[in-house]
UniProtKB/TrEMBL annotation:
This is D-galactarate dehydratase. Keywords: Signal. It comes from the Bacteria. Residues 1-20 form the signal peptide.
């Protein structure tokens, strides 16, 4: 009995770590800076709806759904995409199908609608999933939730 009690006390003492570690970054550490070319509209404070998060203009939306040029595109493949960060404005797809950022287009398999957007690389195998912007999902009219199969083209 005494051994069991001593063992319990000894093991519980192992979980005590003393003071909490300092989680602040070290002095002089470089912090991430916003992209200088981001330039787009900033999401308003307190945004809670898709309309509030979508800061694209009617002109930008019209350009994104304009018919693509018949030549000059390369099919990259299919991906399954979910909604990316609604705080990142614009028309974009983060996908492992590309290794560098560039213009492209996606077609929703469910309804055939397409959107021109920026293709942004992310780590992962080519078959891994992708993240798509709120503005692009709204124009594709496939819903904001769930997983959406997309055909991806690079310009």
């Amino acid at each position: 009995m005494k051994r069991s009690l001593a063992l319990v006390l000894l093991l519980s003492a192992c979980s005590l770590t003393g003071t909490a570690p300092d989680l602040a970054p070290p002095e002089g550490m470089t912090r991430p800076m916003p992209r200088p070319d981001a330039g787009g509209a900033v999401v308003p404070r307190g945004a809670a709806t898709a309309d509030a998060f979508d800061t694209t203009t009617p002109e930008e939306r019209a350009a994104a759904v304009a018919a693509p040029e018949p030549a000059g595109e390369a099919r990259l493949g299919r991906t399954v995409a979910a909604l990316g960060s609604p705080a990142n404005p614009g028309f974009w797809l983060e996908t492992p199908l590309v290794t560098q950022a560039g213009p492209g287009r996606v077609v929703a398999i469910a309804n055939g609608k397409s959107v021109q957007l920026e293709l942004r690389p992310i780590d992962g195998p080519a078959g891994a999933g992708s993240r798509i912007s709120l503005a692009a999902l709204r124009l594709l009219e496939v819903g904001l939730t769930g997983l959406h199969e997309l055909e991806v083209f690079a310009k």
